[in-house]
Write a structure and sequence with these properties.
- The strands form 4 sheets. The protein has a 6-stranded mixed β-sheet with strand order 3-4-8-5-9-16, sandwiched between helices. Strands 10, 11, 12, 13, 14 and 15 form a 6-stranded mixed β-sheet that branches.
- Helix 4 crosses helix 10 and helix 8 crosses helix 10.
- It is built from 10 helices and 18 strands.
- The chain starts with 5 loop residues before the first helix and ends with a helix.
- It folds into 2 domains: about 240 residues, Aminopeptidase; about 130 residues, Alpha-Beta Plaits.
- The chain is elongated.
- The chain is an alpha+beta fold.
- Helices cover about 35% and strands about 20% of the residues.
């Protein structure tokens, strides 16, 4: 098996296609939702731990809060609850010595299933249809986790013995701008000579990812009813104008930033409005103009963007709008950051480990890899910054992430399984 070729691995993956799909379905049936600040990853993690033990891996399960001193770390995120058996799973395939180590990583938590307009399947009752698998989390990112696990399983069953350590991890609390699970694994020492993060990238090799700023914009007017000649500045009308102008902000923000790894059409910097609320917590909704409307937003950024630079540009744009716009000049505005800055990251694509992965990719998939930035925000910076590792992101294609009828291309899962297996053999076996 030490001389295994890529074609042999492809045959081994082909034999197990049905098993791989059934494994993903089993994992998807656990509703491991992240409903900030709570999460429901416990049962899914027990399943993964058991599967890893069954193939002879050494496992370690721990809560992020089990790491001594983690709450004082500058990257620790407060106000997240780990009381529901939310534990990371680490599974190590210990090498015989004198080899490179590899970390295969992913998160087990998924976005909530709402809005509940699923048509092809129920969120946690996955359905296979014409080469696609549907269900919550199949693409983000239980399909990627399955490819990582099955790459190890196939090699172990074939008798391969790596020289360097192979670490497979499933972390908790990545959604809702999380990161504490990933941070906990890095501080516990589960780091390697290369990390591969199986977030969905449509099979592109990504040596960078976007960052994300998240916040609320509060538009304030004067409450009441327009009776008896009263003048009312209804913040709902102000919020409607803000929503229009957010598209102008998106164009402006994209026009003043650029990055060589983010050049494809349609993959410029974007923004997302994800909630609008006119109620204060615990208040009954009066039939009248509300005192304020809160608009929750996310804005993405390229590697190298600082918080200071972003907020200077963001606040200046909106201050000018509220001063000069004929609608907004009657309202006041508050810009309130929420969560934290999900930092962007960039790994040197010329590093030894990344170059090796690109070579393995070309040999296994018989095509040149597309090297680019991932048009998503994730925990990549924690692997690079706290873990001091080169890290690449590569995962399957699919659609409807964080939406109904989420799906993943099964052929991509099979390709990733074989690709990861060959990378273990090539990188950790010598």
């Amino acid at each position: 098996m030490s001389q295994i070729a890529s074609e042999t691995i492809k045959i081994e993956v082909l034999k197990r296609k049905k098993e791989i799909v059934e494994w993903i379905k089993s994992l998807v049936r656990f509703p491991s939702e992240n409903r900030f600040p709570f999460g429901n990853e416990g049962e899914a993690q027990k399943f993964i731990e058991k599967e890893c033990i069954n193939i002879g891996l050494e496992t370690d399960m721990f809560s992020p809060e089990d790491i001594q001193g983690i709450k004082e770390h500058p990257s620790w995120l407060k106000n997240r609850d780990y009381s529901g058996n939310r534990k990371n799973v680490i599974a190590k395939w210990k090498g015989t010595g004198n080899g490179n180590s590899l970390l295969l990583s992913g998160h087990v938590d998924v976005a909530p299933f709402e809005p509940d307009n699923w048509k092809i399947c129920r969120p946690y009752d996955p359905v296979e249809l014409r080469g696609k698998l549907y269900g919550r989390g199949v693409m983000d990112m239980k399909g990627g986790l399955a490819a990582e696990y099955w790459a190890i399983k196939i090699l172990k069953e074939a008798g391969f013995k790596p020289r360097g350590d192979v670490i497979f991890e499933s972390v908790v609390d990545e959604e809702f701008a999380g990161g504490n699970g990933t941070l906990a694994s890095r501080l516990r020492g589960y780091n390697a000579d290369l990390a591969i993060l199986a977030e969905p990238t449509r099979m592109h090799v990504c040596s960078a990812c976007l960052g994300a700023f998240l916040g609320d914009m509060v538009v304030k007017g004067n409450p009441g009813m327009p009776f008896l000649g009263n003048s009312v500045s209804n913040p709902i009308e102000g919020a409607a104008r803000v929503i229009e102008l957010f598209k102008e902000w998106e164009k402006y923000w994209d026009s003043i930033n650029s990055h060589d790894l983010f050049k494809e059409p349609g993959e410029g910097l974007k923004m997302l409005l994800w909630d609008v609320d006119s109620k204060f917590a615990g208040e009954f909704t009066q039939m009248g103009s509300p005192p304020a409307v809160k608009i929750s937003w996310a804005v993405w950024s390229y590697p190298g963007t600082s918080e200071e630079y972003f907020y200077n540009k963001f606040r200046q744009f909106w201050e000018n709008c509220f001063k000069d716009d004929p609608v907004l000049k009657f309202f006041e505005i508050d810009i309130i950051p929420s969560f934290h800055y999900v930092k962007p990251w960039e790994t040197n694509p010329g590093s030894k480990s990344v170059r090796k992965f690109l070579e393995v990719y070309q040999r296994y998939l018989k095509k040149d890899p597309i090297i680019k930035g991932a048009s998503l925000s994730c925990d990549m910076a924690i692997y690079g910054d706290q873990g001091k590792m080169p890290v690449v992101i590569i995962g399957p294609g699919g659609g409807n992430i964080h939406s109904s009828d989420e799906w993943v291309l099964l052929e991509d899962i099979y390709s990733l399984t074989g690709l990861f297996a060959l990378m273990i053999k090539e990188w950790c076996g010598r």
